[in-house]
Amino acid sequence: MTTATVTPWPIRPGRKIKIGGLTPFSAADYPGQLAAVIFIQGCPWRCHYCHNPHLLERTAKSPVEWDKVLAWLDTRQGLLDAVVFSGGEALLDPVLPVAMAQVRERGFKIGLHTGGAYPDALQGVLPLVDWVGLDIKTRFADYPAITTLPRSGEPAKRSLEILLKSGVSYECRTTIHASLHSDEQLCEMADELASLGVSALSLQRFRSEGCNHQTLNQVSQSHFPAPNTLEHLSGLFANFSVR
User: Is the peptide bond before 10 cis (omega within 30 degrees of 0)?
Assistant: First the structure.
């Protein structure tokens, strides 16, 4: 079993969720909802285009105290609709379901951003979640070229299957870069997703902000993807966008 398929649960008593940062207001991280975004420390993958490299490792002491976040959320009731747990990889934290339950008790909807590295953990939190943004890196067979971890596409595919069966509202999102994807790959990825029953896909153009990979930062993205690629993808999904 690889690192990507090991589930970090069960929860050990006395632990608190490790938070690396907080965005107090966002209109873009949960469709149609005004949300705060909580960024969880730690991720098993090392994606070349990552724009949150400071969240990859889990430190001994959480930079943001959870009790203070809860106290702040108490002041946001009636002002925010939702709280999104992001990362890093939020599902890596064993205390995530406890934190989600505490937020739900305060009347907020729960959003989750995940790469799908921990399908069993995803299965465990879905009853607490109202919406999921699932990152789809590329064709599942090609995941190691993005994540740098062997067989990482296997748990990602299983996470997608679990999510689709759950009935929870979702969006699949693919961050695209001309050095990491080809038009052919995007079309084949989209065909695979559509065959699995995916109805919502967004392509996210690479952002250099926060990315430490200087080679990627210097590559022009102006002509990628090709118009016929976008036409092919738009015909496969009920909800398709490029942002």
Answer: yes
